Amino acid sequence: MAVELFDTHAHLNMEQFAGDLDEVFQRMAAAGVTRVLCASFDLNSSAETAALAANRPGVTASVGVHPHDAEDVPQDYLARLKELARQPGVVALGEMGLDYYRDLSPRPVQQRVFREQLALVRELNMPVMIHVRDAFADLLDILRRDGISQAGGVMHCYSGSWEVAKLCLAMGFYISLAGPVTFKNAVKLKEIAVKMPLDRLLVETDCPYLAPEPYRGKRNEPAYVRYTAEHIATLRGISLEELAAATTANGLKVFNIR
Ligand code: NI
Prior knowledge:
Blueprint: E1 5-10, H1 21-30, E2 33-38, H2 43-55, E3 59-63, H3 77-85, E4 90-99, H4 107-124, E5 128-133, H5 136-146, E6 153-155, H6 162-170, E7 174-177, H7 187-195, E8 201-203, H8 225-236, H9 240-254
Parallel strand pairs: 1-2, 2-3, 3-4, 4-5, 5-6, 6-7, 7-8
Helix pairs in contact: 2-3, 8-9
The structure holds nickel (II) ion.
C-alpha cells in the first residue's frame, strides 16, 4: 500500500517559498504527500492561497484572519472573505481564534474578529480552522456561546493538554498535530498522539515554521509531514501506511474534499 499523506496546514504563499515552490511540490510528491491545505492569516494571504488552490493539483485552501492580524482588518474584510470563500478549492475558513501567548492584537479585538468570522462560518456552513495558544478557556467559552457550523472544524497545531483535547473532541473537533510532537521533550503532545481516537486525528506541518525532527530549526515544508506521521505511527505502534490512510481520510472528510 502506497503512503498517501495530507498536510492539512501549510503556508506556501509565504515569501520563504517564493524561490523554490516547484521544488517544494516535487519533494512533497516524492515523500508521498499527495495533498496540502494552504491556510491563510489575513486578506492578502487569503487571496494568495485561493489562487494556489485554483492553480495546483492536490492543493486546497482556507481563508481567514489570524488573531495576530485581527487589529489590522479593513472595514469590509468579512465581505471580502465571503467572496474568497466561494472560490474553487477553498474548503474552510481560518485560521482564526485567540492567541494570548504573543498577544499581537489586543484581546478584545481578537475576540471580536474571531466571533465575526464564526458568524460567517455558520452562514456559509463551512469547516473552521482554529488557531489557539494560551487561550483555551476563552476560546471554548466563545465556541460554546456562538457555535460553529454543521461542517465542524479543526484545532490546528494543537498545543493544549489531553484534558482540553477531550473537550474539543466532545464538541466535534478534529485535532491536528504538527512537528513539535517529534521533539524530545514534548511529553504532553506524545501523550495526546497516543490517546487520540484515530478517526479524529490530522497531521500538518504549519510550514515554514515548526519543522519536525530531524529538521528542527530549519525551514519546514510539506514533505516533512512524513516525519511527523512516522513518529506518531511509532508512538501508537501502527504502520505509517495505516496512520497515513486514517489521517488523510479524516482530512478529506472534515474539509469535504472529493
Ligand atoms: Ni499556521
